[in-house]
Amino acid sequence: MQITKIAFASMLACSALPQLAAAKSADEGYYVTGRVIDAVHKAANMDASARPGIGQFVPGEERKEFATGAVGVGYTFSNGWRTEGEYTFRRNNTFTSGSSTFATSFNVNDIESQRLMLNVYRDFAIADGWSVYGNGGIGLVHVKSGGWQGNESRRYIDTTRTQLAWALGAGVSYAPIDRLTMDLGYRYVSMGTAESGWNAFPNARGLQDEKLSLDLTSREIYLGARYAF
Fold first, then answer.
1. For residue 57, how many other CB atoms are within 10 A of its CB?
2. Closest Cα partner for 55 from 205, 183, 200?
3. What's the pLDDT score for residue 198?
4. CB 145, CB 196: distance < 8 Å
5. Distances (CA, A) of 132 to 4, 85, 208
6. I want to staple 222 with a disulfide (CB 3.0 to 4.6 A). Which of 5, 37, 45, 196 is the partner?
7. What b-and-e string marks burial along 7-44, b requiring 16 or more CB atoms within 10 Å of the CB?
8. Would you state the pLDDT for residue 228?
9. If the chain, 229 residues long, is cut into consecutive pieces of 10 residues, what is the mean pLDDT of each piece?
10. Which helix or strand (DSSP H or E) is residue 95 part of?
11. Diameter of the chain by CA atoms?
């Protein structure tokens, strides 16, 4: 009789294992995501672009606001963590700066950038279907920098570089139906230094000693959707 009881209990336990495993992994799995982003790219430290020895640096347009997007693939773990690979679409921006000696001859810095990031998220449930999250990311940004001075025939040599980018952010999520989650978030992204090549035109001193330089950052508010499969 004791053996029968043990056997029956073992059968019950074994029959419950699939349900327990399913419950444990119900929140786990892959997802795809798309985001619409309201971004502000900011050019800092543009005084490194000042024409050396001639006049004082004059700031110009250092801020660009625009709409862009991103797509990604991620994996959700049952313990509240998520990892994600994300590509942010290529964007062209133009920033300007000048010299007090040449008031009408601005430097025009054309910047093209795109990012590929590995993001990590930590979700905290706050109500049925609702959660808040914090996130960080690290990855690569591909930047092309060039431009001109005064008129478009007076060009700087174009350069391209791939360098480290990092991001920090937070947001709120809502799951209106099974498998679909909406995200509203904010993040700050540092994309490093963008630097053109030397001037390919004769300057006032007849020297090739000028280049454009800036530190590029992005502040982003985004609305996204995740679909689990």
1. 16
2. 205
3. 95
4. yes
5. 50, 20, 53
6. 37
7. eeeeeeeeeeeeeeeeeeeeeeeebebebebebebebe
8. 96
9. 39 39 62 98 88 81 97 96 98 93 88 98 96 98 96 96 98 96 98 96 86 97 97
10. strand 81-99
11. 104
